[in-house]
ABC transporter ATP-binding protein (Actinomadura livida), 256 residues
Amino acid sequence: MSAALFEVEDLTLSFAGVRALDGVDFTIDEGELFAVIGPNGAGKSTLFNCISGIYRPESGSIKFGGRQLLGSAPHRIASAGIARTFQNVDVFPAMTVEECLLLARHQHLRSGPVASMVRWGRSAREERAALRKVTEVADRLGLGGLLQSTVGTLPHGIQKRVELARSLCMEPRLLLLDEPVAGMNHEETAEMAATLSEVNSDLGVTMLLVEHDMSMVMGISHRVCVLDFGRRIALDTPANVVRDEAVIDAYLGGAL
Ligand SMILES: Nc1ncnc2c1ncn2[C@@H]1O[C@H](COP(=O)(O)OP(=O)(O)O)[C@@H](O)[C@H]1O
Ligand SMILES: [Mg+2]
């Protein structure tokens, strides 16, 4: 019997008396594309921040590959194989796409965040391997022709792609995606959805996607967890979630 790759159990966290998360449970299987949705204030960002080690929940458990993650610092969680993207593009605007991806790759290879910045002593072989990985990821995400472009000059939708490429260069076992289509137009959203679906199925990267754009989530996710006021009100396939009474109520009569 295989255990789930990722397990969240009874996660609870309050801010000044407001229960941002209230006993949230779910598991994610290896290879799954799992989404968390919910109205504004439902607790999605709080959940995301608990998983990436920025917030410390009052109680509960977060296990990855059977190991307890709770209480680990963000860089330890990252080196355990969990990469995240940021809602606001977090790449350095003055770097080229290639530099940006190489930096992510080196951060992945070196244990500490400071050691990763040190360029001396790295073998030419390591450099070539890093460049190969970066080129492969860039090609897969349609960024192959943009490696020498300065990130800050690229359109927002492309910068979001660079952000995704950055996280993939770390070869994560679990990828946390925070609103990957925020601020994108319809066409960019459709392209990003297709890319995420491809990365999930072709590379086998397990994904936890937190998203506001319902149609996007429903189109690509295997299962969807719905939060409302910090509580899990549904956990099912997209087809069942859209028909769920509690979900429809939470979204005020069918914004889904
Ligand atoms: N740092 C914080 N300090 C105080 N309250 C917070 C903080 N972060 C979130 N909250 C509150 O927790 C609840 C859940 O917020 P959040 O996780 O941001 O929801 P979502 O991302 O689903 O919109 C909200 O009531 C919000 O006001
Ligand atoms: Mg949020």
